[in-house]
Amino acid sequence: MMTENSKLGKFIVFEGPDGCGKTTQLKLIYQYIREQLAQEVIMTKEPGGTEISQKIREILLDPANDDLEDLAELLLYSASRAQHVKQLIKPNLAEGIHVLCDRFVDSTIAYQGYGRGLDIDLIKQLNVMSTEGLEPDFSFYIMVTPEVAKKRIAAKREFDRLEKNEVDFFQKLYEGYQQLLQADDSKYFVDGEQPVDRVHENIKTLIKKKI
User: Fold this and answer.
1) What's the pTM value of the predicted model, to 2 decimals?
2) Domain 11-210 is classified in which CATH homologous superfamily?
3) For the chain, which residues make up each domain, given as ranges?
4) Residue 175: alpha-carbon gap to chain centroid
5) What average pLDDT is seen over the chain?
6) What pLDDT does residue 183 have?
7) Going by C-beta distance under 8 Å and a sequence separation of 6 or more, which residues neighbour residue 35?
8) CB atoms within 10 A of CB 19
């Protein structure tokens, strides 16, 4: 339980298009915070993070669900997030545990808003409802060009439903993320086309200052 003098954990989000390398960087930062900074930290992802949210993830990413309507997709993401925030993210933050999350609300704005063309104001309203107003303390936007993203994805043996999109969809994502980056100073651009160790060093420097 939290006491008056206890400290909330930091909520740190890793954003970016498929193929940018954010999951690799999240895992490296998890090890750094846990082993080098000796602080409590957990990793999670969206959609997912809880048993119910994971079941929703399976529906969203199953390549067989090609006929999933865009609005239904948006509402499923929101449902997954509501469960995730309530059951996992907020309780851990309240206990002073840092939470590293692979994607959060800005991914929904980028993918379903800029990518699918759904109303961004509607998405923002749903995000506020599903998060109960929770916002990241800071976010790392690991960015690569649409061409690089698609090339990296093409190297995989299997694609999920979103990874099957064409390069023009990734162009819309890239432009969307660029717009979101300018929204406030808690979002940090990271060049994801650099070597993995250099990307890690850039993020680690900021993490050390922040926590």
Assistant:
1) 0.91
2) P-loop containing nucleotide triphosphate hydrolases (3.40.50.300)
3) 11-210
4) 17
5) 91
6) 77
7) none
8) 20
